[in-house]
Write a structure and sequence with these properties.
nine-stranded mixed sheet, Rossmann fold, alpha/beta
């Protein structure tokens, strides 16, 4: 059986002497590798021709976490809590989202990636949950908590693909986001919610494997349901490569 190539979206960061790096969190790479996939980092700044050539070779796309999406994509004005906007990353990820949806290629979104899926398909976000949804629970357990801190419970829809993967209706998850779904995109199903009603997972019901979660399962692979998420994604990518 061939090992599927999983494209992993990247972010731009700056280290020593303001020197720029393009990278992805090691935990994403490890989670995919442990599930049987071969992670391939997708750099920012590729030409459309180069990106299309790379995309054609990939069996699935992982949309990773990171900074915020430019609010113009979901019709909002700027907000002082918005951070880490990168125009090249937004452009690349929305291009990839359109491609995976149109061509039926398996994809999995995490945190920012969850938000990219919702916004790219026509939904909107709270620019900052704490200010715009004051009745909501705390969701921004960063940077002063460990990334595997189990912050709250999510309830999973009984008729969803997600519950078949996780094998549980209720589970504790981490929470490292200050934004969240305000209006759900058309054609997308909300399949998990936090205790305060915030959407925590979405699926594309007609897609071979189109799934996104607001939490960070790559930091929770000590828990069997989170490992199962990556295995299911890699298995779908393996099937698509045949």
């Amino acid at each position: 059986m061939s090992i599927p190539l999983i494209g992993v979206t990247t972010t731009r960061i700056r280290h020593q002497a303001d020197y720029p790096f393009i990278s992805a969190g090691e935990s994403y790479v490890q989670a995919l590798s442990q599930a049987g996939g071969c992670p391939v980092l997708i750099p920012l700044g590729l030409s459309e021709q180069a990106l299309e050539g790379l995309f054609a070779r990939l069996d699935g796309i992982l949309f990773t976490g990171g900074g915020d999406i430019a609010p113009t994509y979901y019709g909002a004005i700027s907000h002082p809590k918005i951070y880490g906007v990168d125009a090249q990353r937004d452009q690349l990820e929305f291009y990839l989202l359109n491609a995976v949806v149109a061509r039926g290629k398996p994809f999995f979104g995490i945190c920012r990636g969850f938000q990219v899926v919702n916004v790219g398909l026509g939904g909107t976000l709270y620019a900052d949950i704490a200010e715009q949804k004051p009745q909501a629970s705390k969701h921004d357990y960063f940077p002063d908590w460990p990334r595997d801190h189990l912050a709250h419970t999510v309830t999973v829809r009984e008729d969803s693909r997600l519950i078949k993967i996780l094998g549980a209706s209720f589970l504790k998850v981490n929470s490292l986001h200050h934004q969240g779904v305000e209006k759900l995109a058309g054609g997308v199903q909300a399949v998990a919610h936090a205790e305060d009603g915030l959407v925590e997972a979405i699926e594309l019901p007609e897609h071979p494997f189109g799934l996104a979660v607001q939490w960070h399962p790559e930091n929770l692979t000590a828990h069997a349901p989170m490992r199962a998420l990556f295995r299911a994604f890699v298995e779908a990518a393996t099937s698509s490569s045949r």
